[in-house]
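TA notes, week 10

Several of you asked for a full example with nothing omitted. So below is the full record: structure tokens for the whole chain, then the designed sequence directly under it. When grading your own attempts, check the secondary structure regions first.
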């Protein structure tokens, strides 16, 4: 009877060693580009707090960028809306320099452009 528990205990030990409870820190970068007139931007920071800003670029070449440290499995979120029908906008989220998600809109003032998700475990 004792011998049947040995493989089970060995598997539990291997599983316990292979599990990593520590989440790795990542650098998250939110980037907004392409907008040539005012837009409203809402985003979630490293503490999970929602922030809303009114951004007024001077040209379509202006970029809004926000970088912060985050842990794997953390939620990211960014939403933008513009009101000038001649405008367009591009949103992207990067983790350690790698693009996670992108979204864009051209000449559509009726909808928000949204990128959201969970930071993957590397």
């Amino acid at each position: 009877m004792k011998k049947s528990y040995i493989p089970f205990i060995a598997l539990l030990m291997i599983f316990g060693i292979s599990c990593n409870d520590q989440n790795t820190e990542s650098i998250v970068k939110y980037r907004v580009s392409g907008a040539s007139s005012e837009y409203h931007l809402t985003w979630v920071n490293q503490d999970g707090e929602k922030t809303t800003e009114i951004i007024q670029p001077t040209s379509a070449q202006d970029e809004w960028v926000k970088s912060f440290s985050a842990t794997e499995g953390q939620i990211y979120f960014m939403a933008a809306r513009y009101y000038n029908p001649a405008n367009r906008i591009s949103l992207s989220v990067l983790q350690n320099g790698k693009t996670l998600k992108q979204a864009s809109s051209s000449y559509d003032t009726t909808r928000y452009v949204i990128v959201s998700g969970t930071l993957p475990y590397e």
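The chain has one helix and eight strands. Use that as a sanity check on your answer.
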